[in-house]
Amino acid sequence: MGYKNTPMSTVKPSEGKEALFSPEVKAEIDKWIAKYPEGWQQSAVMAALRIVQDENGGSLTRELMDKVAAYLDMPPIAVYEVGTFYSMYEHKAVGKHKVCVCTNVSCMINGSDKIVDHLEKKLGVKMGEATEDGKYGLKEVECLGACGGAPMFQIGNKYYENLTPELVDTILSGLE
After folding, report:
1. Omega before 151 within 30 of 0, i.e. cis
2. Which of 5, 70, 78, 111 has an alpha carbon within 20 to 30 A of 49's alpha carbon?
3. Alpha carbon of 75 to those of 25, 37, 173: distances in Å?
């Protein structure tokens, strides 16, 4: 028994893959598939889930994960495992601006609890909820790897560090 240089699991290739996604989504997923050796298309699962999630307004459904599985010739359970394990995948609406607040050790020691309290009061929602207007969603995350700038949060792809309640207000007022 030893390491086998073969994909971990595949299923019989699906028919009708052309109809699963729009041409733009397929092209973007195919760029990621092309980064891996022939037969290793399942390695693009994380990128495919992100692309499909973005196309769906920021969240995944079981049906979308099933389509990703079919497109990548993977068992659906393998896609569910990825889609439900990582915190960057959402399974319900999270608002136009998803505010991911780190509450791990460095951020906690440096006052992330005050940032969370301020955000919840300002936006009128608790962690894991989105505002009624759909503009903001709050999400607690385990660690974003920016301990030197704690407390911090992420909105979209941008990190905001050394947060204070006043800085949070300035950041939120600058969003569309």
Report:
1. yes
2. 5
3. 20, 19, 44
Take residue 17 and report the two structure tokens written for it: 């893959």
Q: What is the DSSP string of 28-58?
A: HHHHHHTTS-TT-GGGGHHHHHHHHHHHTTS
Alpha-helical regions (H) of the chain: 23-33, 45-55, 62-71, 76-85, 105-109, 112-123, 165-173
Cβ atoms of residues 90 and 59 within 8 Å: yes
d(CA 118, CA 40): 46
Can you state the angle between helices 45-55 and 62-71, rounded to 10 degrees?
140
Contacts of 9 (CB under 8 A, 6+ apart): 42, 74, 75, 78
Residue 39's alpha-carbon distances to 11, 59, 65, 74, in angstroms, are 11, 28, 20, 11
pLDDT digits (tens, 9 = 90+) for 113-123: 999 999 999 99
State pLDDT tens for residues 52-90: 999 998 899 999 999 999 999 999 999 999 999 998 899
Cβ atoms within 10 A of the Cβ of 110, count? 18
Instruction: Answer for the pair 65, 21: CB distance below 8 angstroms, yes or no.
Output: no
Would you put residue 126 in left (φ > 0), alpha (ψ -120 to 50) or beta?
beta
